[in-house]
Amino acid sequence: MKRLFKFFSLTIMFALLVTQMGFSSTPVHATSSGLTFTAFSPSLPSGWAEFGRLSGVWGSSANDVYAVGYGEDGNYKYMPLLYHYDKSGWTNASLSLPSGWTAGSLSGVWGSSASDVYAVGDGSHPGNAGSPLIYHNGGSGWTASSPSLPSGWSNSFLWGVWGSSGSDIYAFGNGDRDLAYYHYDGNSWTSSKSSPSLPSGWTSSDWGGVWGSSASDVYAIGSGYNSTGHELPLIYHGTPGTQSPPIVTAFAATSPTNNPNIPITSFTASDDGGVTGYMITASSAAPLSTDPNWLASAPATYPVAGDGTYTLYPWAKDAAGNVSAVYGSPAVVIVNTTTPVLVSPASGSKVSTFRPAFKWLAVTGYTKYRIEVSKYSNFASPLVNATVTALSYTPTVNLPANTKLYWSVRIVRPNGTFGALTTPYYFTIGLKAPTLTTPANLVTGVAHKPTFKWQAVSGATSYTIQVSTSSTFGTFLINVKIGSTTYISTVTLPGNKVLYWRVMATGAVGSSPWSSVFHFTTVP
Q: Residue 170 is part of which domain span?
């Protein structure tokens, strides 16, 4: 029997039977030791009735495993059910439904890493008893979304999920037009433009699982009914073709710029059958595949009429006329050809020297510039006020640290008068806080004498590392100052303990703020 409408139409009836007849079904986890399996049934979320089923499992390691399914929450509603295993055991979670939804379930789970996990299924809401449901955990909790149905469809269910990377993910399932799949390109989910064809003579089919060896070699499995009414195994193999639209993989442009032909520094796209056209527009509306402005290769510039702020959108098309989805990170470019364009220090930046080098772009026809630096945005009492012929300037005196400073440049006309100040940038002199890398946050199984690592900070000459049993660092197990970005503990840390660590950088301009605090658990 087809699973097209799954279980939602029987939700209340089945929940009543489970409750009234005394039957119970609880999720069971089995682990293996060689060929011997041991069973374990984790508890249901608080308040749930005795009903829960698991249908998908995935993990990034032996101590990071997810199992997903669905169950009845005690109010005769089906809800998504998720379990997570770490070294301390299994914990359960009842994921929140999208706003306005009344029921939901999960069938498949996959991740590109421990901090990038997707769970898929379906759910119901007023007006639709079957909508695709996708949860994502990017490392800070689960968020729910429901991608749009293919054009003309009224419902769709997802059964399996797999990806070749965090920006190439497939979710497969069924709908009222038979087979359905969705693809995530790192920016958004898009539905297949049509249902893949059934074998000749077949009347219907279901998808149940998906796996691939690469982005262009994907298998989807399930079952279907042939012309005689028999249910038979069914395997689809996805290989390079023109079924899916191209994907813009990178796009960037120079900003700010004094060039009305905006330099494009990066524009790449991919497609399962090859990209045949590239285009840049200032609109988020997709161009037609027949537009005469398509180019055979990615353009190096984009012309604009004059000064202003422009939002540029990249597009790609393939031989079949498929046009890429709107790019999620369009380039916002400031074009200024009449006043100097400030380059560095960038606005909002932190510099690690008392005498930073100021740089800007030229204005055509002018050879002299006035640079001003002040503690005030109106440039009262300037700390720097110099006229130069170069496009850069380094102060001859130290500027104050840990103070918000503003800088701007104006043209000097041949008669000695000044043009208007460019909209100012601001910066501070100091060191950035270090970024911690190893041991990673929340990691378990750390050795008693671990190696600590963090990213180098520009301008730093030394670092202070602290390790404590408390997140407030009232006492220290380690509190040392070193000259590198790696520290191998000389102290034997306590076993089976949650410990906290942080790092501060020090240089000629003083010390940075403390890094964010990571915590880890040591081995017993």
A: 8-238
Q: By three-state DSSP, how is residue 196 classified?
A: coil
| Sequence letter at residue 326 | V
pTM: 0.46
- Indicate whether 163 and 260 sit together in one domain: no
CA gap 280, 330 in Å, rounded: 10
Neighbours of 329 (CB within 10 A): 13
The answer as to whether 1 is a domain residue is no
User: Using an 8 Å Cβ cutoff, are 113 and 166 in contact?
Assistant: yes
Query: Cis peptide before 256, with omega less than 30 degrees from 0?
Result: yes
Residue with tokens 């130069």: 388
pLDDT per residue over 434-488, tens digit each? 999 999 999 999 999 999 999 999 999 999 999 999 999 999 999 999 999 999 9
What are the b/e assignments for 187-221, b being 16+ CB within 10 Å? bebbbbeebbebeeeeeebbbbbbebeebeebebb
Task: Name which of 188, 110, 190, 115 is nearest 150 in CA terms.
Answer: 190
Q: Supply the pLDDT for residue 221.
A: 81
One-letter amino acid identity for 311? T
Structure tokens at 268: 């790449």
What string of H, E and C letters represents the secondary structure of 463-516?
EEEEEECCCCCCCCCEEEEECCCEEECCCCCCCCCEEEEEEEEEECCEECCCCC
Distance between CA 248 and CA 402 in Å, rounded? 41
CATH code of 453's domain: 2.60.40.10
Q: What is the pLDDT of residues 427-445, one digit of tens each?
A: 999 999 999 999 999 999 9
- Give first-to-last CA distance, the chain, whole Å: 51
Tokens of 380: 């009262």
Quote the pLDDT of residue 466. Answer: 98
Strands 301-303 and 261-270, sheet pairing: antiparallel
